[in-house]
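Treating backbone geometry as a discrete language has practical consequences that deserve illustration. Part of our work consisted of pairing the sequence of a single chain with a tokenised description of its backbone. We regard such an encoding as a compact summary of how the chain folds. The amino acid sequence and the backbone structure tokens for this protein are reproduced below.
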Amino acid sequence: MNKSTGRELVGTDVAREQRHEQLADGIKPLTGMSPQQLDQFGRRTQLSGEAQQACRKLDQALPMAEQAERAAQGTSELQATQLRLLRLRQQFRDLRCQ
């Protein structure tokens, strides 16, 4: 808090993040995306179209694979399910989906 102005002092990184969140909230009715989704979309624009499409598929496949892993606890399918989940996560990382 600045004593002379009564305003809160924030660093440039915090101010940038606040502006980004305000912008994301302002355009949410147009895009339908939350600030986190908009940030992810911005990072993924640097990827090729094929990689973006693969990332979208992985976004849907990973939660389903994680749910399958939880359901397979204590069964003989657990190892195969974990291996599938590991491969999906490696692909997610290799594509730099973030």
